Amino acid sequence: STVLKQRQELQLLIAELKERDEELNDMVAVHQRQLLAWEDDRQKILTLAERCNLLNNELNKRNEIIKSLTKRLKFLESQQNDSKTTYEDTQQKFKELSQKVTDATVHCQALEEKNQSLHCSVLELSAKAGQLQAREQELLTMLKLKDEVILETTDHITEFTCKFKKLEGALRAAKTEEFSLNKEKQDLKLRLKELILETNKLKDDICEKVEENNKQQEEIIYLKQENGCLRSELALIVEKAKRKDQLLQFAKSKQARTDTELSSLRQV
Question: Which segments of the protein form a coiled coil according to its record (predicted)?
């Protein structure tokens, strides 16, 4: 009966060990799935980090472009200021020349009055009038040249204003693109923080599962040792039962011999 009980206990222990083995297999499968998910998350984090680096490089390039555009804009502004100063100088010269022309006309009128009053020096005055007319022609040609220069400067000013407007439009577009890139960068940083928190949580879960697995392995080792002890005890019990059977056989043979001796003694 004890052997049967121990066999039943052994069978129960074996069934429990099989259940524990199945549970361990399930836990190992779950652990492998968690490791695969963690690896996928790590790959995603790496790809996001690479994309973030690419966006940072692109942002640096755009900043360099904006810096070069601002330098170009400053250079164009300085050129525009120079052209304004030259335009103001030409206007001032034109005023001086107009003042000279008015002075010359006044002088010519005075000479005509003097010609009427001084008929004797009419030849000298006519020569002076011819010289003044030549001077007037020179002044007119100079005025025409100055008008052409003024027109050229106005054309340059209009061209520079058009370029300045184009550069302002490009600067606005670059600023809007920079704002969108900064926004996307902030979103990526937030997503990266969330993924880092999820990774740390997964690491903590993995550590807990590993500790639980170690405890279960220790329990399995303890159960195996207990199973070995039970097997050794069972072997000892079987050996004791065999010895008892042998002793019983010896006692029976001894009883048979004593019975035969008693029967022989009774016969005697």
Answer: 7-34, 59-114
